[in-house]
Every structure is written in structure tokens, then in C-alpha cells.
Description:
Strand order of the largest sheet: 1-2
Amino acid sequence: MSEVGVSPVSEKGQVTIPKEIRDALKLKKGDRVVFLDKDDQVILRKAKSERLSETLQNQKAWKTTALEFQKKLRKEWDA
């Protein structure tokens, strides 16, 4: 592991992620990061995926209701 940069901690506990790290992790505005505590170190990594609720929120609305969809599936099973 190599030291890439140093960043001061603000009054609110915020730090700036050095550009080299942002580039290496391909971080962009709005991305989430995960902090892992390992012994006396903290590991930063890009979050692998959104939460399920966020994924579902970003999807387009269904054309049919859930009940209509279930009825359609049952008809297909009975056929």
C-alpha cells in the first residue's frame, strides 16, 4: 500500500478524496463509497451497487398493475 495524498479533516469530519484515488476508483459526483475498518486502517472502496430501493425507484413504471400481471401469468400457466 502506498500513500497517495494527505487531506485535512474539516469541522464536520469531511475530507477530500485525492484526485489520484478518485481517478483510480472512477468516482464521479453522486457515487457512493464504502468505508471498511480493518485493524488500525480504513479502506475506501466504491460501492458496488445501489440499494434495491434506489434501483427500483429509478426503473420505469409498469404498464400493468401487479394484480393484472399475476392474472396474466396464471392464465399462461393454465394454458
